Amino acid sequence: MAQQDAMIKESLAFYKSTFDNTFQAMIILQEQVEKMVDLFLEQNAWVPEDGRKAVKDWVSAYKKGRSEFKKASDEAFEKVEKFFGASVKATKAGK
How far apart are CA 79 and CA 67, in angstroms? Predict the structure, then answer.
């Protein structure tokens, strides 16, 4: 049973690490795109102020959504870890 416990913990740690690394890569990509869009807007005076505001609102919305998604994902990982931790404890107590 100890081997199964270790395997579950290792798997969860791997999935969490993979998610975190992928999420961080996505953030870096989004920040680079944001910089390119900002540069485009700075260099092109013909873009109307309404268009600039729409882009800024869009950036704020995706940052908020990204933050909420990360929070929900972290909470889900915590719940899974607690579930398997409780499951392992219950199995050991039932022996």
Answer: 18
